[in-house]
Amino acid sequence: MARHAFDEVLERLDEALSSPALNRAILIVTLFAMAGHFVLTWVGPDMLGAYRTADIPFYALFILGGVPILAQLVLKFLRREMGADFLAAISFITGVVLGEYLAASLIVLMLTGGQVLESFAMRKASSALNALARRMPSVAHRKDAAGEISDIAINEIEIGDLIAVFPHETAPVDGTVVDGHGSMDESYLTGEPYVVAKAPGTSVLSGAINGEAVLIIRAEKRARDSRYAQIMNVMAEAEQKRPRIRRLGDQIGAWFAPAALLFAIVVGYLSGDSSRFLAVLVVATPCPLLIAIPITVMSAISIAARRGIVIRDPTVLERLPTCQTAIFDKTGTLTYGRPELVEILPGADVDGAHVLRLAASLERYSKHPLASAVLAAARERNLPLDEVNHASEKPGQGLSGRADGHEVVVTHRNKLAKTDPAIAALLPETTAGLECVVLIDGDYGATFRFRDQPRAEGSSFVGHLGDIHHFKKVMLLSGDRESEVSYLSELLGISESLASQSPEQKVAIVRAETAKAPTIFMGDGINDAPALAVATVGIAFGKESAVTADAAGAVIPEASLVTVDELLHISIAMRRILLQSVIGGMVLSILAMGFAAGGYITPVAGALLQEGIDVIAILNALRLALRHDIDADLRAETFDEL
């Protein structure tokens, strides 16, 4: 019981000493103290009478900043945590004892600066839940028995209530349409790239964005039990279970710091010379860990930014080269996320281009999700569009009108099966993807087939992951239908794929794969946010969702798989230079420790030597910022080549 209470006190004290506000305050005091030191040194003895006056700002720093550092040192000792910052704290004390006040203040600067940057990154990473909450409406419009509409809080919605969803609003609960015809964007929730038509009897998911029409839905669930709330709950759980991965500096410092301290103690004991103890400790100060790592990481972040990549969590750059499994969402990630007309199957003795021209002329007056794909196909073929008379669109029935002297109807297979079985018998067999049927003057004109097309560089990218970046496993994970997912997997050469996956299932799969090996997950929808949060590295693709970006460690706004390849190369280059700086600096420090142990290096000379080691490590770290040859070597392909 007493032990538990003691641990709780230590935990609270650690939280207070590690607070971002305290670290920011110490950082500011350190900068002012160093500036004051240099000003007083420049003013010189002519005004103040002694060079030691320049150290006065450091005394204030050591009182305000040194006490928290000493307290953290005691806490780490009690917890048996000996990382790079532990040895840095001891070096700070050593610097004060030796009178190396500038070196001691630099250590304070490095410690507090790194903690401020880390807390900023964590604050950014945990903002996804806030973004999810902001996207959900707080008010719903309930329709009573008299037909009157009144605003209520969404937590007051009861099962069976009639709720009005106005144009461009977000559906507050799961339900069923009872009145109105329109469409909704559910792509962030289901992973399917198409706007979904809504009519009486069709289901609605909370979080779906309404189109241009007013829809009346009957609530099937309360707000807290609806689809969007489930995603928020999964996201909250993912945030709580986000794996805490140690920084590279801590990993190296975990063994270097206690080894260096033990070596210094042994040297001091055997030699009986305390100056040797101090000299060994000074040259062992892990400045390459504390300086070279931030410089290298910031250089990599800068390079990534120039390539249009936003690094939200710098540890992503450390983890990427270690990843062995890559998991991708389908829609908008490996595909373009929009339907394209990929095949025209005309009837006997019918010109497909002629049918496309007439259909596109009519589709100008349609709000159907496939209308834009038909118009885009006509523009690509430079087909002139005709004037249309008597255009009419009935939800669930189709689009009709008169163009170039012909009666044109754009409808679907199920409608024809009921109204005109003879024409329905002429239709080609159904396949994966979407389709529509065009009738010309009451006769079969053509069947248009649509697909969410794979990105041109998709096949090269998937092959590139194994050949160049040594990924051992590539998976496709999607909320889309089995037929669509299987088609894309086969086309891109992905051997393992799973379709119709909910956000909860995605999280479970990504978490399981991450437990086996470091894993990348890349997605673009709100339904991908929880999986992005639990992966070793989460990459948000595209600029459609702030929620997805907040859950990821890296964001690629201009969706391109070539840019993903650039990110991989940047992380590899960063890790290589980082390891050179850190390990090289450690090797030089170890050699210097040997000379200091032999009495060949005094504490003062050791401090100067350590500064030289720091300069070498920093200059090597700066090489990354000066490089201009970090480019993707991925070749984009067209599907004619596949």
From TrEMBL:
Q: What is its EC number?
A: 7.2.2.12
Q: Which GO terms describe its molecular function?
A: ATP binding; ATP hydrolysis activity; cadmium ion transmembrane transporter activity; metal ion binding; P-type zinc transporter activity
Known catalytic reactions: Zn(2+)(in) + ATP + H2O = Zn(2+)(out) + ADP + phosphate + H(+)
Gene Ontology CC terms: plasma membrane
Q: Which UniProt keywords apply?
A: ATP-binding, Cell membrane, Membrane, Metal-binding, Nucleotide-binding, Transmembrane, Transmembrane helix
Q: Where in the cell is it found?
A: Cell membrane; Membrane
Q: What is this protein called?
A: P-type Zn(2+) transporter
Look up and give the organism this protein is from.
Thalassospira lohafexi
Which gene is the coding source of this polypeptide chain?
Answer: cadA
